[in-house]
Amino acid sequence: MENILKQLPQKAKEAEAENKKFFAKLKKKPPKHLDNLMQELHDEEFRKTDCLTCANCCKTTGPLFTDKDIERISKHFRMKPQQFIETYLRIDEDKDYVLQSVPCTFLGADNYCSIYDVRPKACREFPHTDRKKFQQISNLTMKNVAVCPAAYNIVEEMKRLLNK
User: Fold this and answer.
1) Which residues pair with 98 in a beta bridge?
2) pTM flag (> 0.85)
3) What is the count of structural domains for the chain?
4) Tell me: the pLDDT tens digits for 11-53?
5) Structural domain includes residue 13
6) Is 108 contained in some domain?
7) With the CA atoms of 64, 65, 69 and 75 taken in that order, what torsion angle do they form, in degrees rounded to the nearest 10?
8) How far apart are CA 134 and CA 151, in angstroms?
9) Domain span including residue 70
10) How many CB atoms lie within 10 A of CB 115?
11) What CA–CA distances, in Å, run from 7 to 52, 136, 155?
């Protein structure tokens, strides 16, 4: 896994121009079966990918925290939401709540999340490759292929299948 993670940013950079072109085409005219295809590709990839051997998303990026996330997680810690915010979060340039630092504070040395059952929505949905209307999140996907080997593999397979 370590080798894959070392190579991933370079591989994503090499595929960037091709991916931009592919996603632009996909946005203009998404195939009718795109949502089903994405669900199949996502499920297939995650049958062979174990996030616990990687956790690169938790090590290199941080999720956005919604108000609901903050409420749920602060309750889990028996803290007031404001106390949770002051302890763990900051406001980024887009005025969103994000972690004060990465790797994620809640990531253990064993790659397990200490707040897994109450984790933020962004973490639950990552890498967003099974989302409906997938073509609408191409910018996010372009970022995720540089972080998540599974997202990279899903996009590569998607291009292979749809560029026939």
Assistant:
1) 64, 90
2) yes
3) 2
4) 999 999 999 999 999 999 999 999 999 999 999 999 999 999 9
5) no
6) yes
7) 140
8) 12
9) 62-118
10) 17
11) 19, 27, 16
Mean pLDDT of the chain: 95
Select from 132, 116, 130 the least CA-distant residue to 63.
116
Say yes or no: 131 and 52 in one domain.
Answer: yes
What's the pLDDT score for residue 1? 86
Q: Which amino acid is at 15?
A: A
SS3 state at 46: helix
Token pair 């290199």: residue? 60
Q: Cis omega before residue 81 (within 30°)?
A: no
Q: For residues 125 and 140, what is the distance between their CA atoms, to the nearest angstrom?
A: 12
Region of residue 138 (left: phi > 0; alpha: psi -120 to 50; beta: else): alpha
Residue count (the chain): 164
Q: Judge whether 16 and 152 are in contact, CB under 8 Å.
A: no
Percentage of the residues of the chain whose pLDDT score is greater than 70:
99
Contact status, residue 55 vs residue 5, Cβ threshold 8 Å: no
Other C-beta atoms lying within 10 Å of the C-beta of residue 89:
19
What are the tokens at 38?
Answer: 């994405």
- C-alpha to C-alpha distance for 135 and 31, rounded to whole angstroms: 10
